[in-house]
Write the structure tokens for this entry.
Amino acid sequence: MDQKLKVGILGGTGMVGQRFVSLLENHPWFEVVTVAASPRSAGKTYEEAVGSRWKMTTPMPEAVKGLIVKNVNDVEEVAAGVDFVFSAVDMTKDEIKAIEEAYAKTETPVVSNNSAHRWTKDVPMVVPELNPEHLEVIAAQKERLGTERGFIVVKPNCSIQSYTPALHALKEFGPKVVVATTYQAISGAGKNFQDWPEMVDNIIPYIGGEEEKSEQEPLRIWGKVVDGEIVKASTPVITTQCIRVPVSDGHTAAVFVSFDKKPSKEEILKAWAEFNGLPQELELPSAPKQFIKYFEEDNRPQAKLDRDYEKGMGITLGRLREDIVYDYKFVGLSHNTVRGAAGGAVLIAELLKAQGYIQVK
């Protein structure tokens, strides 16, 4: 494309905001021109505002170091200089709902990493390979907001990426009961081992709100658009436990599943190997060429070895075998701050651009 879209990052100094900055460096379609954060960071350069809190393994991109951080609450000022924004703000749920709608009403599309609007009936919650058809509900949302080009799209919880794509690829066999335990990295809490030393040599068997999200959000992804809103699916029945483990990046899931029509192991592996979606068909810049990869080795996938598969945008699976209680069990892994957070949102924005929802103002 001749002209890159101008991007703003709301909440750009936090861990997910930093991941957005890193992923968008040299992006072929998008250019970060504005970073907005809390009033305490406003007025500083991005480099000064982040300071020693840069948590990425790659250096801070030179192009953003000198950007003057804007106050995220100055909605009109921030929106004036961008074509769309990514949202990773750290606020209460009500505050996030309000500020994201405020940006949308300035005719600025919002692609959000936050959970606040995941259950707003006319806001699509999208994994681009799984439910791109939900974007059609944007028309109803615009009507509600009174906008022509402004809207909100959200990505789902990071933990469900480790098992929902695997189940989606098997929808023809009718998954009916799913039991999943997720082992979630500390970066999912926006932390590393330096600022969370209590996690070294430790496991915490509770993550607030995660189990409800992990059980319900896949059903919304598998729902239908009916009369301008998304109605969640009623099946499968999903029950989960979510555990924090001493891993820097990468959410792992141990999954048990029963089907209405039990497939053979060969049928499952074939479905996983052949599965792709609209991002692959459109060859979007951030789309993994092969979305799902299965390992035959008994000791894979491993977070340390496999979280960066397809630059962190792919899903890795392993240990598929029949179970004595359920039909099958397997292990899944996804990179929680790439595919599960900023990278997933960037892919959504690429899909929105490709389908004409985001254009130059």
